[in-house]
Amino acid sequence: MYAFTSPFANPAGSPIRELFKYLSEPGMISFAGGYPASDLFDVDGLAAAQARAFAQPTRCLQYGPTDGLAELKAQVVALMSSRGATCSADELVVTTGSQQGLDLLLRVMVAPGDVVVTEQPAYPATLQALRLQQAKIVTVPVDAHGLNVEHLAARLHDGQIAVPKLLYTVPTFANPTGATLSRERRIALLKLAVAYRFIIVEDDPYGDLRFAGEAVPTLLALTAEVPGSRDWVVHFSSLSKIVAPGLRVGWTVAPPEIARRCVVAKQTVDLCSVPWTQAVAAEYLADGALTRNLPTITEAYRHKCETMCGALRDKLGDAIEFHAPQGGMFVWARLAAVKTSALLPHAIAEKVLFVPGTAFFAENADEATLRLSFAAPNVTAIEEGVTRLARALDATGTSVG
User: Fold this and answer.
1) Between the CA of residue 139 and those of 20, 115, 180, 393, what are the distances in Å?
2) Got the DSSP string for 344-377?
3) Which pLDDT belongs to residue 399?
4) 85 Cβ contact partners less than 8 Å away, ≥ 6 residues apart
5) How far apart are the C-alpha atoms of 244 and 297, rounded to whole Å?
6) Could you tell me if 346 and 340 are in contact, meaning their C-beta atoms sit under 8 angstroms apart?
7) CA-CA distance, 209 to 305, in Å (whole number)?
8) Phi first, then psi: what are they for 133, rounded to 5°?
9) What residues contact 15, with CB distance under 8 A and at least 6 apart?
10) CA 13, 19, 24 angle in degrees (round to 5)?
């Protein structure tokens, strides 16, 4: 009846958000969505920041600059500097969450048929955005140390894949695997981008959530060590995982010519991100509240992650394998003898949710994998949820323990 554009003729929605309809069921424990813990929101700090922001109500209630409020951009520049990466205002675009940053970049850079490399497994919303942009997705495997850069280099050298327009990676506490790209691989990836002239898209929503191990500089920060590489890195980050997703405050750091075009693209999308929440975020950062609150968040996530990993070992034993992450929100696991899509209905019946791993694959999905988020539930709920998961696995006929 309607003449939709080809990407929307038969679009697939988010496989994770399809599970949200079960969240309203009484007693449901969710390891599914990557939601931060709501009890860790700095409500008092944000309320105080909002009061200060609204002392200048026109700033909050009027349209703002498309690239972001100047006071927020100044605070983001300072935050990025504290993370070891310098940037200037003309490289910075404030976005409505970092997901909008990806959407704008794809509009600006990717034409139908262009090759884009992603990790596999990868964040499903990225795969969804690439498919809607009609990009040709090429995958590179990951292991416990992140993206296999040597594998990518070999395929590029041998001409097995075309030189991509972009390469998308979540190098620190990746979604879904929780893996962190090693420093050596980061340097190698930057050198590869310079040699082959492709843009590395570094998505960094979780980098501040480290609770174990040694910190690794962002790819953006490491461009200082690889001549010419700064021209080939676009960096996304946001306050969604470390302050509150309801603020919808993210940002893109990109070479000025890319940033300027992203601003033009944004003008046709929403004119500007919400000035009110930008002003609140600016006040919150200026007060140092994020720095004060982060240790509380990371300690809570450390305890939750240890609880989940311990419960999985105790209750599922040899039926499951996984690597414990050093930060972030996710445990990526593989079951020994069952497809996780077949397990899910049993889990829902036991009132526990997870995301089957097939949602994170662009091709050749491993049907035995699953993603578990430990961030939102409390420790008691995590222990009970894993107990329910073990019962669900038993119901498939797989022995656990």
Assistant:
1) 28, 10, 17, 30
2) HHHHHHTTEE-EEGGGG-SSS--TTEEEEE-SSS
3) 61
4) 217, 218, 220, 221, 235, 253
5) 12
6) no
7) 12
8) -80, -5
9) 124, 355, 356, 358, 359
10) 130
29-30 and 352-353 strand pairing: parallel
Residue 171 pLDDT more than 70?
Answer: yes
The pLDDT tens digits of the residues spanning 34-73 come to 999 999 999 999 999 999 999 999 999 999 999 999 999 9
Check residue 318 and report its DSSP letter.
G
- Tell me how far apart the alpha carbons of residues 210 and 317 are, in angstroms, rounded to a whole number: 26
- Nearest-5° Cα angle at 184, 172 to 177: 30
Positive or negative: CA dihedral 209, 173, 230, 96: negative
Question: How high is the mean pLDDT of the chain?
Answer: 95
DSSP-based three-state secondary structure for 139: strand
pLDDT band at 1; cut points 50, 70, 90:
confident
CA separation, residue 41 to residues 35, 148, 174, 283 (Å): 12, 35, 22, 16
Average pLDDT value for residue range 202-207: 98
Cβ 199 vs Cβ 255: under 8 Å: no
Tell me: the pLDDT tens digits for 71-117? 999 999 999 999 999 999 999 999 999 999 999 999 999 999 999 99
